[in-house]
From TrEMBL:
TM annotation in the entry: 399-417
GO CC term (a single one): cytosol
Protein name as it appears in the record: Inosine/uridine-preferring nucleoside hydrolase domain-containing protein
The species this protein was found in: Adineta steineri
InterPro entries (UniProt xref): Inosine/uridine_hydrolase_dom, IUNH, Ribo_hydro-like
Amino acid sequence: MVNQNILLTIVFLIIANNCRVYSRALTYAEQQIQFCINQDGTRQPLIIDTDSDVDDLWAIHYVLNVPTIDLLALTTVGDGYTKPLYSGSNVLTFLDLIGCSNGVGVGFGATLPLISAGFQISPALLDALDTYITSPTLPVDILVLGTMTNLATAISEDRSIVSKIGTLYFSGGQFKPLSNFSSLMPNLTIFNYLYDTETLPGNPNAYLDIFAMQRVATSGIKHIVAMPGSTQNTLPVNLTQLFETLKRMNITLKPFVLNFISSLAKCQNAAESDMKWWDNSAAQFMVQMQTNNSQGFCRQTKNVQSLYIMSADAHQFYGQGVIDTDMLLPNASGLVNYTICTQADSSIFLVEFLTTINSEKLYSCQHQYSQRFDIRLQQCMLKYDSAVQPTNMAKTNHFLTPFFLSVYLFLYVTYFLA
């Protein structure tokens, strides 16, 4: 096995861009590694970063069955709706249960946000989610289904990956016009910095690490697409609609899959009316945008400029995302361009979701371990190891951070993108 320290250093030092490594051209040996990887150029490379909640796993199941996507890696973050110990194991166990054991590389990521929101998710809810599963040369796109902590950390480690990201897709976010606020004066009687309670209409994937959210958004990624929480809330998990659609489409899901997609309310000990098709709607919106599908479930999109309020004295506005600032805040800085879905059709959504997961094609699941992208990369680098050894081995330990696996996956999957 190639030395992990050497492999990490090589990956960090030879991220390629248009057949160049930083300011120099790739060597012959480095080009050989790229040819050796032999990536499928007909499918869109993708990384999914997830907090491993139940709806995240729905989204992963969906993406694995989309023929136009090549899922290179899954990275997990432990500061969202699962605790660090379970964020990775939930994904691995789920892959086993749907027949994709060892078929996709999984990296365990960060466990703490860059800046805490103060809001604590209910331990009872975390316990239920944690044990739900474990009890009896294209630019790479990234789909973030939890907080932005892992991606913000990867960008901090090496900003050169920003140019390698095609489109960043995000599940959640808030895009509220300033004109919708009754007052822009901070309410000093409301203590929401840092959050002591979950505050609607804020969005947890954003405010659980608002610093990471804004850092990623302003990093220079050219295209950012979001499925806002407000639009996700128009896609209820209605079991009556679910079973009627299955009957109408003559779809018979495997018992485990059917139970899995119909048990979210039970898992969270919550009312069915509170459950939405959250993260899997973001995955479907991503596919709709990637394939330019005008008949998809997102019926209307909008280009907006948004920023997240991070001032400590903003009180009730802290962590909220606002748009339409040009009239009221003409000199605002930190504005970021987003494409968002503003109107969705739940019937079209459900048909697409159920049809896709029922196909059981698992296009991105490698049935031979040796063909998995991360394994092929290691084998190719080992084959040409003598030609690409870094000269400055002192840099090696710099990258061995507690969450290096997720940062490693974010960075090494961009290697082949010459």
